[in-house]
């Protein structure tokens, strides 16, 4: 992680948030914050289309942080800036021991038996209409 002299920390994670995900901010093996990372824009395949989001979080000592996350094809860049220092010692501890990891969103997988085809859905709807003494009218 890169530390700037203006109370900023930044780093790049070499992953793509294909389906989106979360940046998990960990201090001494304890989760401090979990911030949504949007997927990059996929419309323009010929250039790096960056999707940016901003959020904030507070550590256990009451220090306030702003975070900007840039999600691109190929990496996630984030920048953490402290906005209010309540406890300087705890901030220094945070700056020296923070760990940021990416947690991807894993799409739910379905078995073939769980997927209803359009034909099956139309048949089910037709049966429900007939069972309720309603009739389907196609125009």
Short description:
The chain is built from 2 helices and 8 strands, in the order E-E-E-E-E-E-E-H-E-H. The chain has helices at residues 88-97, 118-131, and strands at residues 2-4, 8-13, 21-27, 30-37, 51-58, 64-72, 75-84, 98-104.
Outline the fold blueprint:
Blueprint: E1 2-4, E2 8-13, E3 21-27, E4 30-37, E5 51-58, E6 64-72, E7 75-84, H1 88-97, E8 98-104, H2 118-131
Antiparallel strand pairs: 1-2, 2-7, 3-4, 3-8, 5-6, 6-7
Arrangement of strands in the largest sheet: 1-2-7-6-5
Distance between the termini: 63 Å
* Helical percentage: 10-25%
Q: Determine the structural class based on helices, strands and strand pairing.
A: alpha+beta
Integer-rounded radius of gyration: 23 Å
Low-confidence stretches: none
Shape: elongated
Kindly state the number of beta strands: 8
Let me know the average pLDDT. 84
* H/E series: EEEEEEEHEH
Strand content: 35-45%
Q: Given the structure, what is the number of helices? A: 2
Largest sheet: 5 strands, antiparallel
List its traits:
139 residues; 3-stranded antiparallel sheet; alpha+beta; 17% helix; elongated; 8 strands
Describe this entry's structure for a reader:
This protein has helices at residues 88-97, 118-131, and strands at residues 2-4, 8-13, 21-27, 30-37, 51-58, 64-72, 75-84, 98-104. It has 139 residues and is an alpha+beta fold. A hairpin with a 3-residue loop joins strand 1 and strand 2 (8-13). The longest helix has 14 residues, at 118-131.
């Amino acid at each position: 992680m890169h530390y700037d002299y203006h109370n900023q920390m930044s780093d790049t994670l070499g992953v793509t948030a294909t389906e989106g995900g979360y940046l998990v901010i960990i201090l001494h093996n304890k989760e401090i914050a979990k911030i949504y990372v949007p997927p990059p824009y996929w419309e323009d395949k010929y250039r790096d289309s960056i999707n940016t989001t901003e959020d904030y979080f507070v550590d256990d000592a009451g220090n306030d942080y702003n975070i900007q996350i840039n999600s691109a094809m190929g990496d996630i860049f984030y920048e953490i800036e402290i906005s209010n220092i309540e406890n300087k010692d705890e901030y220094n501890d945070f700056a020296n021991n923070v760990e940021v990891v990416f947690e991807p969103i894993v799409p739910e997988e379905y078995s073939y038996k769980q997927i209803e085809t359009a034909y099956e859905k139309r048949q089910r709807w037709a049966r429900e209409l007939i069972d309720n003494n309603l009739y389907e009218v196609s125009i």
